Amino acid sequence: MTLPTHAQNPSAESSSRRRKNGKKTARNVLLGFAAAVLVVGLIAGAYVFSLVQTFNSGSTKIENAFPEESTRPQKADGNTAMNILVMGSDSRGAGIEVETNASSDQRADTLMLVHIPADRKKVYAISLMRDLWIDIPGKGESKINAALGYGGVPLMVQTVESLFDQRIDHVAMIDFEGFKDLTDALGGVDVDVRIPFAPSSGPKAGQVYKVGKQTFDGDEALAFVRERWAFSDGDYQRVRNQQAYLKSMVGKIIARETLTNPVTISNMVSAVSPFVSVDKDFDAAAIGNLSLSMKDVRAQDTVMFTLPTLGTGTSADGQSIVLADTTAITDMAAALSKDQLGTYVTAHALDKGQ
Fold it and tell me: Distance between CA 189 and CA 180 in Å, rounded?
């Protein structure tokens, strides 16, 4: 009589069963891992999609942000450096006006030309004094911030492009009220106060801002970037304070603990979107691609300084103005055209913080 195979070789049967069970276990582990990856991928995809939707739906698009093409400087072939014009508007919560090609009473309280070199290793933010007395195309001499009132965003872009003979790639307009909500979404921002003061008006009027590092909540940050009357040099110190706050805020935004916290990121996007207006091509996808190309940039790689001027003066019609340093403007324009702004900044020791 022939015995069944398993009876003939019990050890072989046991070994076969173990192999089958081992294969089944390995298969289950792989399937489980694949399922986990799929779920995480779907969640991440949905999360990113949600952030994109939040920004694109919450922010305002400036449909006609740029002047007529015939009036604009052209980029040299292969030039991948980027220039972003950033305008800060202090609407006191009344909302941002972005009407274009029309006169209004809108003013840019803060004006920055953000230059990102082709190698994406630095970020340069050049503050332009809002009372800088220059030629506004088609309007004659006036304070630079009046360009927005004379002809909306396109004329402001044309004015800055004419000043430096450099093409502006994107435009962003931010209401100061957004600083408040963004600061709170970050859990506060640490700022090193160099000159003590007490705001002259607003919710924080009379509160003393002492020298040294302090953690600001939203209201405190808003008062800090708004104040100018408390300083002997007015807008000059105000701009330095804005630079100090922005540098600290950027440092916290790109810190590992922020970027790895989905809740914080979501809160930031939700908080700031309603206070931001951008040109129609500067959507969340474009900003995301730019951020990816700058993934190695750290807080210390952010260089902020004020365009050199010749001090203050009075216009022929009696306005208090800031006198343009035409030599500095010409030299900086040349540095920008060669994508060598870093060399210019170092040579002139311009990154002085506050």
Answer: 10
Q: Annotate 290-346 with DSSP letters as a single string.
A: HHHHTTT--GGGEEEEEPPEEEEEE-TTS-EEEEE-HHHHHHHHHHHHTT-HHHHHH
The residues with which 279 forms a beta bridge, in sequence order, are 62
Q: Name the residue with higher pLDDT: 226 or 89.
A: 226
Q: Residue 276 pLDDT > 70, yes or no?
A: yes
Q: How buried is residue 27: exposed, middle or buried, by Cβ count under 10 Å (0-12/13-18/19+)?
A: exposed
Type of residue at 295: K
**Nearest-angstrom CA–CA distance, 275 and 106:** 15
Would strands 170-175 and 189-193 be described as parallel, antiparallel, or unpaired?
A: unpaired
Q: Which residue has the higher pLDDT, 53 or 3?
A: 53
Q: H or E stretch including 215?
A: strand 212-216
The secondary structure of 107-167, three-state, reads: CCCEEEEEEECCCCCCEEEEECCCCEEEEECCCEEEECCHHHHHHHHHHHHHHHHHHHCCC
pTM of the model: 0.83
Q: How far apart are CA 344 and CA 335, in angstroms?
A: 6
SS3 assignment, position 74: coil
SS3 320: strand
* pLDDT attached to residue 22: 59
Residue with tokens 């002139």, as numbered in its chain: 348
DSSP 3-state of 186 = coil
What residue ranges in 31-122 does DSSP mark as E strands? Answer: 60-62, 82-89, 110-116
